[in-house]
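User: Structure with magnesium ion, tokens only please.
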Amino acid sequence: MSEPLLALNVSDKRFQSRSVIDGVRFDIRPGEIVSLLGPSGCGKSTLLRIVAGLDEDYRGTVRIKGAAPHLHSPDVGFIFQEPRLLPWLTVADNVGFEAGRGGGGHPRVRELLAEVGLADFADAYPKQLSGGMAQRAAIARGLFAQPALLLLDEPFSAVDAFTRMRLQDLLLSLAERHGTTLLLVTHDIDEAAYLSDRIFVMSANPGRIAGEIEVGLPRPRDRAAVELSHAQARALTLLHGEQLDYLDLTGELAARPRPLEPVDFASLSFAV
Ligand code: ADP
Ligand code: MG
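Assistant:
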């Protein structure tokens, strides 16, 4: 088995005296796609900020390729819920921001803009982009430095449902093409099951891992199959156990016939 890309052990994280993370421990292998799934306030963003080197005030050890996290690490990229593009820079200069002044002229910027479908918007300004386009530019910016690990904090929760599906598929294809490992925070069960190899379901007060799910579905993923999968059912039980214990979650759900023909999202054409 390969060395973990990320080895995380946060034994205790407090804000003032309140414990918000208590004993969260996991490893991520190179090339994996892992989600942290849990209700608001369970500590997902706090964990991501620790991995990004944005918060060093915790007990435990975190290692990325064997080294402690630090800000501006070339090994780590970060994508937020909002695109956070700088309004006074062109799309190209935003994507190439890490290369410094005039970074938009870097050859990788053009390649990345083409990959995210924004080749014609290199010289546009952020206010000229739709929400989905702006988030695609943010993804390109996150990949610019070729990070081994890309952290994403609820990256698609601010866009509409159709845009979200297109962005999820774009993210999967980019991660595969660039060999990028993904650690994604989400509170959306469908999204976690559709994207991930493994899901860590978290509970709150203080934040802990309530369970780990191996998704185990073939790639490319089939959205309809994901919806009826055992992974979905396990995530639902872990998140809402009490309310759902009347369901037989041991396989009956996964075996049910599909209620609808799966939609071929790739064949639908609309602008994101
Ligand atoms: P999530 O991303 O899962 O919604 P967060 O990691 O943002 O949760 O927050 C976890 C807990 O820590 C919450 O109870 C939140 O109120 C608290 N918290 C987060 N950031 C701060 C902060 N800067 N100061 C005090 N409390 C915070
Ligand atoms: Mg959060």
